[in-house]
């Protein structure tokens, strides 16, 4: 298996027009020998799934899963399982779209919609990526503070320097980037396996929790201000993120494919699905371990502060831990240090994938390209601003106030994901359902189509259902009656706007698909008349 570059040696401008293959510098650069054994072929195709899996175990997932375990024991395990299965289905369709159509999701949407809608969807997706980046900034800055006692303001600025790491990675080849991401995932996995193994959880309760019940989505039982439904929405919202669909549809094209050979295309789709499902299974394990930590590592109800600061403190506070083995290890500081290391690894992984995704949507929606390091620098500097403001505004207050403010900022930033998710899922499903786009062999089968629509409608409904509470969260823990009324009105206005924009997107996509079919028929007729 070899890796080569497609890009000729020429001087690039900082910002230039781009309307070529997705991520042109790495598109089709990795050759995969034929006639290998199943496992050797799988290894050759493995890598893109790991970059996608990163988004399913980023810092935004941590507090929701651990708090869910603290409040409801293993009951929300089923939500993690359902979210992971939906993720596998959506990522399979995203990879298939890229491999078969030779366009990433952004390019495919833009090719079927008007310029004005393309710009609107680009801005919406950029906001979602920046919201995700805020969580990464907070996670990385807190990890640096906890590990090296670096003041938070300085730690936030240090996170900007990860652009230098990205600049180095762009020089070593995409296959090596995939390997680095896998290593960082293994670090995260090891940390949580070790901590959960020491806690000796109730595995019977874990398995029982994988089966959803009527109580799983209940709104009547509240623990520490969280209902099962709000806990489930938090886990779902932190798990399925729009940028992963754009990313996967692009990096699934890094393997060299003979598109004139349908069997070669089918083989690539098959092994891309294997790679994705295996890596997302690891993400499911990590998220499950986080919830199990909330149940088994800590005493029930012990964690009052679900922020990263609170979890770090809890892992070094022997009065909060559940058994003697954990207490003896915690005295050495190992549990809390490992937690901070995993947090730093998670943030760095998300840096790589977030930057690639930003380039994908910029090229796809508005046909503009800039170097990855510049793209990263611009996005990170914008994302740093609200974090710095939050740190500076709370610098004169108590540590608890500062920690709470950062945690609230991270949680509230995720509200944009509820806006952007339907606008990636719905076009993805519509285009992979289309024989005109995918061909008869690769369009979604009946069962994939049925589960896909169920997932898209269900996730969109749940995200919109949780929107009023998400907006209310911006007003703090004790909002006034006026603030509650305002948040509801604003939520309903935004929901109406989302539905209207979805209707516009569907109309444009259907019209674009019809135009595409007509072009195909005209081309076929012209060929027949020759």
Describe, in plain words, how this protein is organized in 3D.
By secondary structure, the chain is mostly helical. It has a single domain (15-418), classed as Sodium/glucose cotransporter (Up-down Bundle). It has helices at 38-45, 48-54, 59-72, 77-101, 105-112, 115-148, 152-160, 162-169, 174-199, 203-209, 228-239, 242-251, 262-297, 308-314, 324-330, 334-366, 372-393, 399-413, 415-420, 422-432, 435-442, 446-472, 481-528, and strands at 2-3, 16-17, 30-31, 368-369. The strands form two sheets. Strands 1-3 form a two-stranded antiparallel ribbon. The protein has a two-stranded antiparallel ribbon with strand order 2-4. The radius of gyration is 23 Å and the shape is globular. The protein starts with a strand and ends with a helix. Keywords: Membrane, Transmembrane, Transmembrane helix, Transport. InterPro entries: NRAMP_fam (IPR001046). The chain crosses the membrane at residues 72-95, 116-146, 152-170, 177-197, 229-247, 280-300, 320-345, 377-395, 415-434, 446-466, 486-507.
SSE run: EEEHHHHHHHHHHHHHHHHEHHHHHHH
Q: How far apart lie the N and C ends?
A: 41 Å
Q: Name the poorly predicted regions.
A: 5-10
Helix content: over 70%
SS element count, helices: 23
Organism: Lactiplantibacillus paraplantarum
Keywords: Membrane, Transmembrane, Transmembrane helix, Transport
Protein name: Divalent metal cation transporter
GO molecular function: cadmium ion transmembrane transporter activity; manganese ion transmembrane transporter activity
